[in-house]
Structures
1.
Amino acid sequence: MSLIELQHINYRYPLTSDLTIKDLSLKVEPGEVLGVIGSNGSGKTTVCNIMRGFIPAFYKGELEGKVIFEDKPLDTSNLGRLAQKIGYAFQNPFTQITGVKYTVYDEIGYGLENLSVPREEANEKVEQVIKLLNLEKIRNQNPYDLSGGQKQMVALASVIVLDPELIILDEPTSQLDPSSTLAVYNIVKNLKKQGKTIIIVDHKVDLLAQVCDEIAVIQDGQLVVKGETHHVFSDEKVVAAGGQIPEVSAFYLKKYPKSKQVPVTVDEAYEMLKEAKA
Ligand SMILES: Nc1ncnc2c1ncn2[C@@H]1O[C@H](COP(=O)(O)OP(=O)(O)OP(=O)(O)O)[C@@H](O)[C@H]1O
């Protein structure tokens, strides 16, 4: 059974003439980490919004097709409650800051407060996440006074603290420096070990390839290809659709252009080149 499934989704934003999403079907299995790539404007964020229920609950427009979550049509009647099941870190962390809390600590705890989690339990969870994301230094700061990167980390913390079944991260490292970017990817690796189902939209394919079981490529609102990471990055449709492939995969494909499976890490490349020569 899939955790979430999109079935033949068509979607048009209000006041637009063309479909943004076109007959898109996609399944995500429990415990899977799915990377979503594609050029700017291809529809990645829109797909995330449909999975999180913001479309049609918040953005109107015309939506056709079905979203099945945990074997039932996605219930978008209470988006606050749905946050407990589906966590979503927005591409723009400014959107995520609630504006009603004056410290990072309270901001992270806001979702738990809304769900009436007992205070002691909530405090414990917030402390754990602050430690995990290394936010001790900014815990008493006003969320609005933070840098873009710090806001992004707080937004991520606000999602993780709710411990949702499905975590959707829309370009979670777009504002982060290289070391914070790596820290976020390490956190994703840990969440994966805990069995979480995660969808990550990112242009940083080298990092994405290291954590994702599968990659989906979207072009012009359509799903071009979805499959196991090492296979997808050997598929010429990815580059033709405006998607990038990891540097190490590109290097291997230059040497072995007909490969149906490519390495996505330097270690894998080393092993595969060794085998190819043997
Ligand atoms: N609220 C909206 N109303 C009308 N059109 C929209 C709206 N939001 C997005 N679009 C359009 O839908 C298309 C897909 O946008 P979307 O943000 O989903 O793409 P994306 O792949 O996430 O892009 P990026 O990589 O730049 O974040 C774009 O053409 C965009 O202009």
2.
Amino acid sequence: MAILIRGGTVVNHDHARRADVLVDGETIVAVAETIDAPAGAEVVDAGGTYVMPGGIDPHTHMEFPFMGTVSADDFEWGTKAALSGGTTMIVDFCIPAPGQSMLAAYQDWRHKAEKAAADYGFHMAVTSWSREVWEEMETVVRTYGINTFKHFMAYKGALMVNDDELYHSFRRCAELGAMPLVHAENGDVVFRLQQHYLEQGVTGPEGHAYSRPPEVEGEATNRAIMIADMAGSPLYVVHTSCRPAHEAIARARAAGKRVYGEPLIQHLVLDEDEYRNRDWDHAARRVMSPPFRPREHQASLWAGLQSGSLQVVATDHCSFTSEQKRMGRGDFTRIPNGTGGLEDRMPVLWTAGVNTGRLTREEFVAATSANIARILNIYPKKGAVAAGSDADIVIWDPRATKTISATRQVSRIDYNVFEGFSCTGLPVVTLSRGRIAWKEGDLRAERGEGRYVARDPFPAVHVANSTWRELNAPRAVERAEVTP
Ligand SMILES: NC(=O)NCCC(=O)O
Ligand SMILES: [Zn+2]
């Protein structure tokens, strides 16, 4: 059935204009100043609103077995939470269990994701290195449509990989036209600092922040950038949370390296003081890696979004209930790492970004959908309101208000790290591939309606990168034969 979105202002990453939008089935078929409603079409009045691409959150962990438990939101409730906040696609991480092949991990995640109510894709994690991993990476890219590989430089003894493994994997990514992702924290130093603070008697959640200072992230970000450069690969740095990490990325970009950075909405508005709250539950609920930072780092992240040295705002939605967090009572290293945020990312970014004049509406679209769609090589199928694009659309009322409260959220956990945050600017309707998935508080999306989005390798950046590399590769010097 056709839907005509009438009277709104269409905002894409590169322009905004008054236009009607016609959706037929799963696709946008026309964007024009005036469109007559086809017979039988549902007409949605968008007067006074912005009509924007549905958000893409490229960093989520649904039903993720981690630190002795499993994250609380599954693909059904995670994607429903996403839709209620204007996000129409998530990209989750397939993380092989110890000894498990990537191919088996992929099957596990496909199975878990059958419940999804919105579209989804995957990144694959490289948690060890071997001939099998090298071979499987090709299947992951060519058969499974995954063009991104995640590397944890933290979580020593669990997911962490070393520099040798990073180098090998980055080279393989370059060959396959895939993008390596890094969780950049120096896991060896974090481990030592954790032991140090525990020995000092710091057992509460504040120890989590003390043991993961900005320096461990700055060092690892810089190291990953240099290794990627030597391996001939672009690089995407997930959850860039602090000035030293952002500066490493900005420096690399100024030197012509293809490096991307992803701040989280949490790091943009919440700070380290949360861990000093006298209520243990309050502080533990906010334990995630990297931790929230001293406030001065936020200015650097905002500046990165404004100047283009940081491109994407994500959530790392990895939610644990208060009960699960209490596994770490008496030892902060056992508090499951992760927070929620899927349904809040866009309203909080609009409020703290657009309403304050830090971001334009177009930059908001770039940071919430278009930039990551281009990095993932799915643009303009996703990330654009244009004829031919998937009808993933959010109709946004810049005057609508709400105060965030866990009592009204879709996510299955019992608290919200943004509790009490007043938002101005909210989704009123979210369309997911042409269906009205959420409208003014009415969640209509059904379990299982989401679809897997496969992605091709070799986005333009890779082609340019490998051409440059090939033309500028160091070569053996030709010398005249030296007779003995
Ligand atoms: N970020 C976090 O604390 N938990 C999820 C796993 C990860 O991305 O590091
Ligand atoms: Zn994560």
